[in-house]
């Protein structure tokens, strides 16, 4: 048995959820076709097919019969490039634009004939309507035999042909023209939504300056391989994810992570594709192929998220499947019951039944949710907020509690010098001597001391020979004035007795959750240095913002109670400390009993808790783990991103319900006016296409949230 072939196509003209349903239903009816995945958000179709039973030409022919244009083709591997990066026609050059212009021209000719020679006006409008209806009727027929009998084309074709039969040819022509214009407006609106993600593609430059054997050559960026060295000059975009090997520069990462302040990048620092070196030249070693860089992963994740249906979208899709045939039955009853039962005029009630048929189209209702979800996902991606699907996005707006890990989440994840208490000399003397001892240390405390001295521009005393490290006790080095040790308070007590004042200061610092080291010259105490993994600069503000939203917060950590309490008091969260992984899971379970809970962690050691929460949020920095572990990731490593996620979700939910209310409300109003003989056929089609455009435009307002960032 031959292995099934894979096929990936871009489908031009697939601008709404009902369009995707038509294609999916048609593909299901083809023999040998399986694993069908249709995404109207990305205009893409992926499927597998048995070449002995169905050909790729038959698949593309079926798509064309439905009124769409397949682009590309071939194996999935060959077509694996993101559809977001595919070249698309501008809307004014598209098929729907040409069709709308042709129909408008025919209507214009009929209008002119009717005014020049009124006796031929009815014939002119009838001819224009009959010719104009052909492409839509063909699509309605193709949809009906492919599993979608109740499409908008079917409703519109029946209404237009019925109008001609009762002598309303002019209104039939107007209905067809307005429908064509409405389809065109849907295309423009859908293109705006897609542009939110496509803008990410343009962040990565097309070429790069590669260095080989001291020779620079300009090559396509997608040809870079792992290990290549590229040179990025001031003002240039970085062509791929990599690691700085030479140079120091301020890098603008706002396009990728949303971080508005340029980040200093030194040798060894990680850089992202699409970020900009603002002031100096960098030499960068490529660490990811083009298909695996941060931008590509973001696009892929958002595309996948757009393809996954939110709970509200699934509910509305199920509703619309029953709603459309029911609405057609109501329209039929409107047309025939008054004449049959009350002997009313047939032409009048058939006309009202046709208007009811047009009003009943569920397009606006069906698109109300996915349009908002797609816009929100794109807006979030622009701000460094990655959300994996509509379900996670909806749940974020309903959470009652946010549980935070401590290290690397509420705190920076590495210790910093917070206090210097000199006993002899000055604070600078104490720090300089400690840094001289620790200058070659790999321990996080030693690294923090050296960084603090460097930040203050201190000149370090010279050291002689290698430093001696006694694990858990001290590091000792010979400086110009003799041996100096940096060690634990226990080690200091073994060497000399601490005076009462120094001991009191040491205890006070430890009560604040800080780690204290003692600097000794021989057996004399030079001073104390306190270090702590400090809260992130925005942690307290983020927690306060969540509290204002009515959301409770809790810190879950395996750290000791004293340190956890100190951080919790600083940030403003309740604390549960000294928790093993199973205890964290139990705590998440208890919180879920009270309502949806979000867990925020670093995406590695918190994986079980992230999975157990209603929504898992990973502090990202663009790492593979952060992008793949949780339901959402904060590329900016900002705690405020959690509040931003909740705010984005709440805005999205509000837009969804606004759209549903708008779609159903307009239909209810126009249904009443139709039955009261106020609404004409052309007003009925406006009720449908107008509502579709309105709900799409309302959803697109979410994209504004991604235009700028608070930080």
- Look at the structure and give the mean pLDDT: 83
Distance between the termini: 58 Å
Low-confidence stretches: 74-86
Question: How would you sum up the global shape?
Answer: elongated
* Assembly level: single chain
- What is the number of helices? 24
Percentage of β-strand residues: 15-25%
What does the largest sheet look like? Answer: 7 strands, mixed
Radius of gyration (CA) equals: 33 Å
- Work out the count of structural domains: 5
**What class do helices, strands and sheet pairing give?**
alpha+beta
Strand order of the largest sheet: 14-26-25-24-15-22-23
Q: Estimate the helix proportion, in percent.
A: 40-55%
List how many beta strands DSSP finds.
26
Describe the structure.
The protein folds into five domains: 5-80, Alpha-Beta Plaits (2-Layer Sandwich), CATH 3.30.70.100; 95-197 and 303-372 and 652-706, no CATH class; 207-292, Calcium-transporting ATPase, cytoplasmic transduction domain A; 385-412 and 536-651, HAD superfamily/HAD-like (Rossmann fold), CATH 3.40.50.1000; 416-532, Calcium-transporting ATPase, cytoplasmic domain N. It has 711 residues and is of the alpha+beta class. The strands form five sheets. Strands 14-26-25-24-15-22-23 form a seven-stranded mixed beta sheet, with helices on both faces. A six-stranded antiparallel beta sheet has the order 6-5-7-13-8-11, with no helix packed on it. Helices cover 50% and strands 19% of the residues. Helix 9 packs antiparallel against helix 10. It contains 24 helices and 26 strands. It starts with a strand and ends in an 11-residue tail after the last helix.
